[in-house]
Design a protein that fits this description.
The structure holds 2 protein chains of 2 kinds. By secondary structure, chain A is mostly helical. Chain A has 14 helices and 4 strands. Classes of the chains: A mainly alpha, B mainly alpha. Chain B: Keywords: Cyclin.
Chain lengths: 362, 427
């Protein structure tokens, strides 16, 4: 009667002798004797068989058992335990390997024979069991040498495989250790290089410009130089830090002097790119007036809106004189501006047969 | 170089739309020649098709027998018409400009809009022939785009109502913009005139009425004369303004020039007024040459180059030339262009000629726009579906596209690929 938490029913197992259960006696241990495969609790076994051999207390079983024979079961089901014991015994006798046989068929026949024997031993009636047992004994006696040889071979094979496995496991472990070591080394290296950079920054010398190039090279060349580098670094770092304020000061001053000056100032940014807006031919002054301008000076809308009459005057005068000195005939003949053919062909492209796409503004 | 001149040189009007007379004439010739050739091709192409449909639906290569040879088997125009000569084209352009100005008067637009529209119109027909696009329609288009360019945004309905027309003005809009190479800023002499009179007034010793009268007359001139001539192509707005002023009142213009180009190189070592105080009474000899002008110009040579006598003479020469050009088309000539007799004798024959030799494909602007839109859509579609049409096989066999827009595509091939140029391929 298995409960949900005890599917195999171990807790229900009762010692047939003292009728105690795990429920009532949690420390109970069951043992059995391979003679008859009957189990009982350890206390009972001790009590019953301490003083010498005694009869098995199970009803109907009259085998004489000794205290020595009792052992605890590996399998919960004693039937399985019994079968396993039998198979162990049989395997100890019939221990031939496939390589010992000429053909697979022979090997299979051998296996079949062994299995039949085992079955008879496990499940046969008493009569057959005794027969099988006898066969087993006969075989053993007959093939003792072979058995011995096979056993040894088996042992050696086991040894080899065991060694191989151990070696593999070792290798894996070794690799892991190495990887960890390398990671740590890199971390240390990084920290060291950063400190070195900081030191160089503090010094602020041309070493900084040389540094990246050499740094790259060092990385490529491998461990040796890096070790050398890191070996030298601590010295620099320590000297940098060790000498204290004076050296720091000196370093910084030295750095200031040696640092290349910023490129010569180009002056304030000129959004007009050098174009000059101051008039050349005229001067803007307050005396400029025009009747229209005066009219609008009195117009409330213009004045309130913030219209700048000076702006208008400036623009008007600019337009009056802009281009006065530009002589189109001369300049266009000479060719400043766009050339004639280019002009015509480009401008003539209006009546483009071509791309209807261009027509589409959508 | 004077800073004002430097700034003027940056404008598109100077860089792209200023020419010497020789260049201008050459351009007109070239435009005319190209147009003739293209129109001839197109006429022959459409002539060998059924004359009923405007959009030809079959692809036929142009008559391989050449341009001028008549094809007796055709039943439409067998020979090529007489094409306009460049002079006739120029005459027509001037006529249509006067029409444009009349239309502008009718609309009542400000001065700048008038002038800008006219300049757009002129520029457009500088690089496109009158035979190719209908000038009558382009007038309204120019007025519309001109208004937009000058900051007034009219309604199309307004236009159509005022001129009682159903013309699709928007059809030619993009064309006009392309023709102007998208240079929308046109500088005019009107504000310059105001500036000049302001300057004159500030001299203090000129009669106010004289100034006002001169300004009025000059303004009148500026509204007509430079637009009817090629002045905008050859002279800067400042020079045009001075020319107009000199036409109105020569004395004032000369006075202004004298005052501006006052600098005398110091070989004579006296009476050069370094500071440009326009009040003539103040002469400060030898007060350092701190001019209110450009940063750091102090050398005499530079100042001479800007406001010295040499440049003054040159400027005066240019103004004189411009004045001559303007005087060919004084405002009094307005009546000339609108007179019935002139129209009958000079303009009408040319117009008759024009109706025969106009470009069959491009005369109808809205049709043209529609075709182009469709072709564009079709091309976009065909790009998406590379070889899905039934006609693909036939096309492969017959070596050409048999779809309805074939003529368009064929002509595109003939005319070459102007795909790189944002302003389109050549005519």
């Amino acid at each position: 009667m298995a409960r949900p938490l005890d599917p195999l029913g171990f807790e229900d197992e009762m010692c047939p002798v003292c009728k105690s259960r795990k429920y009532l006696n949690p420390d109970i241990v069951f043992v059995f004797n391979p003679e008859c495969y009957h189990s009982m609790c350890l206390n009972c076994a001790n009590r019953l068989f301490n003083d010498g051999p005694n009869q098995c207390p199970h009803a109907g079983c009259n085998k004489t058992l000794r205290r020595k024979g009792f052992r605890s079961a590996f399998f919960g089901d004693l039937a399985v335990e019994r079968e396993v014991d039998i198979r162990r015994r049989v395997a100890a006798v019939f221990n031939q390997v496939e390589d010992d046989f000429e053909t697979l068929q022979d090997y299979n026949n051998y296996l079949q024979m062994v299995e039949d024997l085992t079955f008879e031993l496990v499940n046969g009636t008493d009569e057959r069991r005794r027969q099988a047992e006898a066969q087993l004994q006969a075989w053993e006696a007959e093939h003792r040498a072979d058995i011995e040889r096979n056993k040894k071979a088996g042992r050696e094979a086991d040894e080899i495989s065991r060694k191989r496995l151990a070696a593999e496991r070792d290798a894996v472990r070794q690799r892991r250790i190495e990887a960890i070591k390398e990671a740590e080394a890199e971390k240390r290296e990084r920290v060291r290089s950063r400190e070195m950079e900081l030191d160089n920054l503090a010094k602020g010398t041309t070493a900084m410009t040389a540094e990246p190039a050499t740094k790259v090279q060092l990385k490529r060349r491998g461990q040796v130089n890096r070790v050398a580098e890191t070996a030298s670094n601590p010295t620099i770092a320590t000297t940098g830090m060790g000498t204290g304020a004076s050296e720091v000061e000196r370093l910084s001053i030295r750095g200031l002097k040696e640092k290349p000056k910023a490129p010569a100032p180009q002056g304030p940014y000129d959004p007009f790119g050098g174009m000059d807006f101051a008039p050349c031919r005229y001067k803007l002054h307050g005396g400029l007036s025009h009747p229209l301008m005066e009219k609008y000076r009195l117009d409330r809308q213009h004045v309130a809106g913030g219209y700048s009459f000076d702006d208008f005057a400036a623009r008007a005068l600019y337009e009056a004189f802009a281009g006065l000195g530009v002589f189109v005939e001369d300049e266009k003949e000479v060719g400043s501006g766009i050339g004639l053919s280019q002009e015509t062909s480009m401008a003539a492209g209006i009546a483009a047969v071509g791309d209807a796409d261009k027509m589409d503004l959508d | 170089m004077a800073s004002e001149d430097a700034r003027y040189r940056e404008t598109s009007q100077f860089q792209a739309w200023s020419f010497s007379p020789a260049q201008l004439a050459a351009m007109r010739e070239k435009t005319n020649a190209i147009a003739r050739q293209r129109i001839a091709e197109r006429m022959l192409a459409s002539a060998s098709n059924p004359p009923t449909s405007n959009n030809t639906s079959h692809a036929n290569t142009p008559d391989p027998s050449g341009h001028g040879t008549p094809n007796p088997t055709e039943n439409s125009t067998p020979t090529l018409p007489d094409f306009l000569k460049p002079e006739e084209e120029a005459l027509l352009v001037s006529f249509y400009v006067s029409e444009l100005l009349r239309a502008a008067d009718h609309l009542g637009v400000p001065d700048e809009v008038r002038a800008t529209a006219t300049v757009f119109f002129r520029r457009f027909f500088l690089t496109n022939s009158i035979m190719t696009y209908p000038p009558q329609e382009m007038i309204l288009v120019a007025l519309f785009v001109g208004s937009k360019a000058e900051g007034r945004f009219p309604r199309i309905i307004e236009f159509q109502q005022k001129f009682n027309t159903k013309q699709d003005i928007l059809a030619g809009e993009f064309l006009l913009c392309q023709g102007n190479r998208f240079n929308f800023e046109v500088r005019h002499p009107f504000r310059a005139l105001m500036g000049a009179t302001m300057e004159l007034r500030s001299y203090g010793d000129i009669d106010e009425q004289r100034i006002i009268a001169a300004e009025k007359r000059a303004h009148e001139i500026l509204l007509f004369s430079p637009l009817m001539t090629d002045a905008y192509f050859h002279y800067t707005p400042s020079q045009i303004m001075f020319a107009a002023l000199s036409l109105a009142d020569r004395g004032l213009a000369e006075r202004l020039i004298q005052e501006t180009f006052h600098f005398v190189p110091p070989t004579t070592n006296n009476d050069n007024t370094p500071a440009v105080t326009p009040l003539p009474g103040l002469e400060n000899p030898g007060i350092g040459r701190k001019e209110g002008g450009s940063k750091g110009i102090t050398t005499n040579d530079e100042r001479a180059a800007i406001v010295g006598p040499g440049i003054r003479d040159k400027v005066m020469g240019t103004i004189e030339a411009c004045r001559n050009m303007l005087s060919t088309e004084l405002p009094e000539r307005k009546s000339h262009w609108t007179s019935e007799s002139i129209f009958k004798s000079q303009i009408r024959p040319v117009r008759k000629k024009l109706t025969k030799c106009r470009d069959p494909d491009r005369w109808n602007l809205s049709e043209l726009q529609r075709q182009r839109r469709e072709a564009g859509v079709r091309r976009a579609d065909s790009e998406e579906r590379p070889a899905a049409s039934n006609g693909a096989k036939d096309a492969a066999i017959f070596g050409g596209d048999l779809s309805a827009d074939a003529p368009e595509k064929k002509r595109r091939k003939v005319d070459g690929n102007g795909l790189e140029d944002p302003f389109g391929g050549p005519l």
